[in-house]
């Protein structure tokens, strides 16, 4: 009797995980120059979520600064080449997020207007 109860619990938990989309793996992308392209990360089929890391400077009237550790230089406009890769990821059902902050940087939001300006 105990083993059938255990099997029922396992079956219910498995169904719950399937219905809740549990098990999707997230990865930070952008801080390791050897990690390959964003498109390659998404094409790997390993991830449900990709977090671009990091927007290290923003808010309080500062010009936002994107730090992608050598993948592209935002000051030259080179990061615009990521747009098609982001769309590729999204077309595969992968959610793409931008991580705000990080271990170092100058950031903060002083008001809802400041937040709207950063957005």
Automatic annotation (TrEMBL):
Among the record's GO biological process terms, what is one? carbohydrate metabolic process
The regions listed as transmembrane in this protein's record are none
Q: Name one GO molecular function term.
A: endochitinase activity
Q: Which UniProt keywords apply?
A: Carbohydrate metabolism, Chitin degradation, Disulfide bond, Polysaccharide degradation, Signal
Q: Tell me where in this chain the GH18 domain is found.
A: 23-119
According to its record, what are the GO cellular component terms?
extracellular region
Q: What is this protein called?
A: GH18 domain-containing protein
Q: Which organism is it from?
A: Zingiber officinale (Ginger)
């Amino acid at each position: 009797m105990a083993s059938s109860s255990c099997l029922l619990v396992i079956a219910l938990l498995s169904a719950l995980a399937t219905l809740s989309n549990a098990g999707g793996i997230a990865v930070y992308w952008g801080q390791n120059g050897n990690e390959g392209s964003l498109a390659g990360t998404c094409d790997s089929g390993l991830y449900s979520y990709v977090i671009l890391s990091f927007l290290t400077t923003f808010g309080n009237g500062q010009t936002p600064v994107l730090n992608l550790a050598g993948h592209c230089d935002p000051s030259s406009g080179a990061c615009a080449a990521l747009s098609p890769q982001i769309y590729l990821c999204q077309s595969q059902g992968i959610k793409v997020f931008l991580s705000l902050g990080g271990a170092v940087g100058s950031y903060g939001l002083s008001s809802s207007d400041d937040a709207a300006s950063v957005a």
